[in-house]
Write a structure and sequence with these properties.
By secondary structure, this protein is of the alpha+beta class. It folds into 2 domains: 3-111, Gcn5-related N-acetyltransferase (GNAT) (Aminopeptidase), CATH 3.40.630; 144-302, 3-Layer(aba) Sandwich (Aminopeptidase), CATH 3.40.630. Helices cover 29% and strands 31% of the residues. It has a 12-stranded mixed beta sheet with strand order 1-2-3-4-5-12-6-11-10-9-8-7, sandwiched between helices. The radius of gyration is 20 Å and the shape is globular. The protein starts with a strand and ends with a strand. The mean pLDDT is 95.
Length: 309
């Protein structure tokens, strides 16, 4: 049986579904749907040189990879490749072929360093190290069971603070872009990010098919968004927050915690039963908030890095 690697063909019936299925089987703590797969391919910034690769054996997609340049990083040449092979299809060389194809693409578009996320499991870490990568910062996936009714009660909203949803900014989302840009710049990690292109943010983030505008919750002070939690849902019972943050001048008031617990209560009322989030292992303030909310660590990833070549 021969494994081949090629680009994902979203115009072929069933291919986006197969890609999303592999991602779910290998990393069930993140939300992927065929619609989100198509959106990323269609709407990624041209400077990202984004590609979705698939490893195919006898017509079946057994592995996938997302490959791009971190075009929104202030440091040029940061390449990203994340490879996933179905747990029941390992040992066929699919991972090695996906890494090779990803490296060739990133080398061709000017990458100087390569970053990849690897589950903190012996086989996964050994695979990364065999391919020349060195371990960096860890991060945790956390899970919260919303069906068991143990979510803390809603706290009072401080005077002068108003809670709104992202849907309230549908006519002009720029204030949320400015909040997102300010908070993502402070997010810990090995690859720093800067949001400077409003139109690109609208296309990639605001119009993402899994972004739930009603559950994304914003704390507003004097008419200005100062804290928020960004919620994604899969159209069923699963929910995740991809970003929770507060402007520097408003930190220490519990506004991020307030936004997140209100979002979770609304999510539970809407029928969500399972919530996920992620934390850099050194982000103690958010780890404390998520522990208070009842989240528990369900998996850990490690970011690996190596030079191109």
């Amino acid at each position: 049986m021969t494994v081949i690697v090629r680009d994902l063909r979203v115009d072929v019936p069933g291919e986006a579904e197969a890609y999303a299925r592999v991602r779910h089987l290998t990393l069930p703590y993140m939300l992927f749907t065929p619609e989100s797969v198509r959106h990323v391919i269609t709407h990624s910034h041209p400077d990202a040189h984004f590609r979705s690769l698939v490893a195919v054996e006898d017509g079946e997609v057994i592995g996938v990879a997302g490959v791009c340049l971190a075009h929104d990083s202030p440091e040029p040449g940061q390449g990203v490749l994340n490879v996933y092979v179905r747990p029941d299809r390992t040992g066929r060389g699919a991972g090695r072929l996906l890494v090779r194809a990803a490296e060739e693409h990133l080398d061709a578009v000017g990458a100087t360093r390569l970053y990849t996320w690897v589950l903190d499991e012996p086989a996964n870490r050994a695979f990364a190290e065999r391919n020349g990568f060195t371990a960096g910062r860890p991060a945790h996936f956390l899970r919260l069971d919303l069906a068991d009714g143990t979510l803390p009660p809603l706290p009072g909203t401080p005077p002068g603070v108003e809670l709104r949803s992202a849907a309230d900014f549908a006519d002009d989302p720029r204030p949320l872009f400015e909040l997102d840009a300010a908070t993502v710049a402070d997010e810990p990690g090995m690859v720093s990010i800067e949001f400077t292109d409003y139109d690109a943010w609208l296309e990639e983030n605001w119009r993402h098919p899994l972004l739930n505008h009603e559950l994304t919750t914003v704390a507003v002070v004097d008419g200005r968004p100062v804290a928020f939690t960004v919620a994604y849902t899969d159209g069923g019972t699963r929910y995740t927050t991809s970003m929770t943050g507060t402007l520097r001048g408003h930190r220490g008031r519990g506004l991020a915690k307030l936004a997140k617990i209100h979002s979770l209560h609304r999510a539970r009322a809407a029928g969500v039963t399972e919530a996920f989030t992620g934390n850099d292992a050194g982000n103690d303030p958010m780890i404390a908030i998520n522990k208070w909310l009842g989240y528990e660590i369900c998996a850990t990833e490690v970011r690996y890095v190596r030079a191109v070549g």
